[in-house]
Amino acid sequence: MAAQSTPVELAESSFTTELVGELRLAIGQRAGKDIAVSQYSRGALRVFRPHYLDATPQVCYTIINPGGAYLGADKYGIDITVHAGSSLLLTTQSATKIYKTPQGPAQQHMLITLEDDAVLEYIPDQLIAYREATYLQDTVVKMGSSSSFIMCEVLTPGWSPDGSQFSYDLLRMRTEVQVDGELAALDNLWIQPADQAIDSSLYFNEATHVGMLLAVDRQIDAAMAAELRELSYRIAAEQADNVQVGISLTAMHGVAVRTLSTSTESANAVLMSVVNFLRARLRGQEPMNLRKN
């Protein structure tokens, strides 16, 4: 890992203060496998050594936060580049925990650049927001029309002394995807329970966990979205918890999925069924096995 003095460049981010954690990772090909051609980390972000989870050249990297959680006024910057023809599966070691943030919101700014025929699957563990937490997440994806992007996350409420499910102050997660410089998808999730004039048990119609998935690939069309809708409804019906699912096409060859449920497991079951369908249909890959035992 070569130390570099140039700060990470993050699109759409205006802060200039010191980052608590910074990660830059660029993936390319060498000897028939995808590898890190450049890598830099500083502060509270690291990556494990790479793994190869199937017979394809795709490399898997795991992001870790040695500090264990995001705290008040923490700012994190992540810059990922996947060069032409390469493929990256990016995940996290464990859940991202947001504790109370009296000093100011915790923030994560992520810039993803996908060159021609590049693939990125970003599958982090769940995000847990605890009492009095405010978290702002901005993700900007710049990709070519021949590249492929999949991202999914599950948001869960953390433990609260009074047992309330929506005791965090604010979660705002914004994802913008540009294809050849044009806006292809904009997903902006804003949850602010304190400003709602309703009981928290009714905030999501008795649900407590929000699942979200966004995929952009030129092969995605209305027929594929219909297949995904049928699949996700079937998987949702098989869960012990009630899971509600919504699926819609984006403007440019993309699909957005939302789930509402009462457990991380049920949300993940639906979202991963969509991920594995897309892996098989778009690239002929086997179901994902992250081996987190």
The class by helix and strand makeup works out as: mainly beta
Report mean pLDDT, rounded to a whole number. Answer: 90
| Helix-strand pattern | EEEEEEEEEEEEEEEHEEH
Strand content: 35-45%
Total strands: 17
The unreliable regions are 1-16
Query: Into which percent range does the helicity of residues fall?
Result: 10-25%
Outline the biggest β-sheet: 10 strands, mixed
Radius of gyration: 19 Å
End-to-end span in angstroms? Answer: 28 Å
**What is the molecular shape?**
globular
Number of helices: 2
Task: Tell me about this structure.
The chain has 293 residues and is mainly beta. The protein is 12% helix and 43% strand. The strands form 2 sheets. Strands 3, 4, 6, 7, 9, 10, 12, 15, 16 and 17 form a 10-stranded mixed sheet that branches. A 7-stranded mixed sheet has the order 2-1-5-8-11-13-14, with no helix packed on it. Helix 1 runs antiparallel to helix 2. The N terminus is likely disordered.
